[in-house]
């Protein structure tokens, strides 16, 4: 006796595809809003570490259980944008309570006579007038790696980034090629 062929049901097929699409959209939403942050770097302020036009992925989970550390590269809400829609990518230089002095193109932490070792800088920072910063509690001081071409905390009206404005720790670049960011 021949097997009877089941008839194709368009309605069930469409409902099945809608469920798949909705599930994928929910997963993407959750990943993008709670697990990872995706950002495009529009300027050369972080060169040679991150180049103009690079796309980076950051972990939103990095700072749920710990605090940013000096040297971390982070994605954050630009403190001078009242809308909170502008994201910046910079390196954490100052931690809460730090005293930062910039003299003769070098960064000094907490009244040290020895400048901060910054092997990631592509070139020496051009000397500019001496500057003194005292990082408030729950805030961080950010500088770009390409100091001579970076609109960073030295140039902002609001010099410090509050911890709750930090979105993610940058982990790697995925475009134009994959590279771990340190």
Automatic annotation (TrEMBL):
<protein>
    <recommendedName>
        <fullName>Signal peptidase I</fullName>
        <ecNumber>3.4.21.89</ecNumber>
    </recommendedName>
</protein>
<comment type="similarity">
    <text>Belongs to the peptidase S26 family.</text>
</comment>
<keyword id="KW-1133">Transmembrane helix</keyword>
<dbReference type="InterPro" id="IPR000223">
    <property type="entry name" value="Pept_S26A_signal_pept_1"/>
</dbReference>
<feature type="active site">
    <location>
        <position position="45"/>
    </location>
</feature>
<dbReference type="Pfam" id="PF10502">
    <property type="entry name" value="Peptidase_S26"/>
</dbReference>
<keyword id="KW-0472">Membrane</keyword>
<dbReference type="GO" id="GO:0006465">
    <property type="term" value="P:signal peptide processing"/>
</dbReference>
<feature type="domain" description="Peptidase S26">
    <location>
        <begin position="15"/>
        <end position="175"/>
    </location>
</feature>
<feature type="active site">
    <location>
        <position position="90"/>
    </location>
</feature>
<keyword id="KW-0645">Protease</keyword>
<keyword id="KW-0812">Transmembrane</keyword>
<dbReference type="GO" id="GO:0004252">
    <property type="term" value="F:serine-type endopeptidase activity"/>
</dbReference>
<dbReference type="InterPro" id="IPR019757">
    <property type="entry name" value="Pept_S26A_signal_pept_1_Lys-AS"/>
</dbReference>
<dbReference type="GO" id="GO:0009003">
    <property type="term" value="F:signal peptidase activity"/>
</dbReference>
<feature type="transmembrane region" description="Helical">
    <location>
        <begin position="14"/>
        <end position="36"/>
    </location>
</feature>
<keyword id="KW-0378">Hydrolase</keyword>
<dbReference type="InterPro" id="IPR019533">
    <property type="entry name" value="Peptidase_S26"/>
</dbReference>
<dbReference type="GO" id="GO:0005886">
    <property type="term" value="C:plasma membrane"/>
</dbReference>
<dbReference type="InterPro" id="IPR036286">
    <property type="entry name" value="LexA/Signal_pep-like_sf"/>
</dbReference>
